[in-house]
């Protein structure tokens, strides 16, 4: 299955998610607006079920499986959020789930995945190919693969976050979101461009994992060595083929930010907006806060993709010595 999803597919996904997924809040901050010179609208997907946008795509995909596929169960691979999303979606559907997770995944994400009833199998992200491992297990046990991003039903489901945002704030100049494997960015682009062709869609990656930026510049998917760094949810080695087909047509630009930029964004969101955001979820705001995108005078939608971070690790990051924001500006 490799069709390019449309706005209608996103709308249909929204119907399947109705009454199951949360309609997450859109928040604003005068402080953020003053600092950036723009009007910012934060779509807070850390308040989604299991704490991230990933629930949308996983549930949309699993809800479409045949009775035989549901009986046999599903498998996926993920550093955390798609793992939890698949596990929860499978639990709601009453079907078994097996999840391949990197051995260095956050303990909170592993515990949550197991808590939803899934079987967790660990692998080494730096020496083992998760796709090969996953598809081998799927074939051996008759399981259906629920890809993290490279699937039209995943893309359509992820696009429902942007659909909700633009229905709430229809006149956006930009929508900015995280880029890992490309599910959220491509789904956002399908929804945003379908609703408002003039809205520019921008992806944000970690500076040491810029395979998407390289791919967009080259016009083809570029694969890189497994990157290391803070935002584990965005440490992909390449963008999905289907996702890139959408990105190269509908995405205006892909920019990068450093770990230090991400920490500053996390600190701002915690101190000024009282939001707990994981490093991957802070990527889009980091790009805006650090001037990576010319946003002055514009209306900007920012999809905060998730908040699943160990609290001890979160405390270490937001308590570290980073750039201070102006504390005299009122929220």
How does this structure look, described?
The chain is α/β, with parallel strands linked by helices and 331 residues long. It folds into 2 domains: 7-52 and 151-318, Rossmann fold; 55-145, Rossmann fold. Helices cover 45% and strands 15% of the residues. It has 14 helices and 10 strands. The chain has helices at residues 7-17, 30-36, 54-62, 67-72, 81-93, 107-115, 130-141, 152-168, 183-195, 211-218, 241-250, 259-273, 279-289, 311-318, and strands at 26-27, 39-44, 74-77, 97-102, 119-123, 144-145, 174-178, 200-206, 253-257, 299-304. The strands form 2 sheets. The protein has a 6-stranded mixed beta sheet with strand order 1-2-10-7-8-9, with helices on both faces. A 4-stranded parallel beta sheet has the order 5-4-3-6, with helices on both faces. α5 links the parallel β3 and β4. The longest helix has 17 residues, at 152-168. The radius of gyration is 18 Å and the shape is globular. The chain starts with 6 loop residues before the first helix and ends in a 13-residue tail after the last helix.
Name the features.
331 residues; alpha/beta; Rossmann fold; 2 domains; six-stranded mixed beta sheet; four-stranded parallel beta sheet; 14 helices; 45% helix
CATH domain class of the largest domain: Alpha Beta
The strands making up the biggest β-sheet line up spatially as 1-2-10-7-8-9
- The structural domain count equals 2
The CATH architecture classification of the largest domain is: 3-Layer(aba) Sandwich
Number of helices: 14
CATH topology assignment of the largest domain: Rossmann fold
**Separation of the first and last Cα atoms:** 47 Å
Q: Based on CA inertia axes, which overall geometry fits?
A: globular
Largest sheet: 6 strands, mixed
Helix content: 40-55%
Content of β-strand: 5-15%
Low-pLDDT segments: 327-331
Average per-residue pLDDT, rounded, comes to 93
Structural class designation: alpha/beta
User: Which sequence of SSEs, written as H and E, runs from N to C?
Assistant: HEHEHHEHEHEHEHEHEHHEHHEH
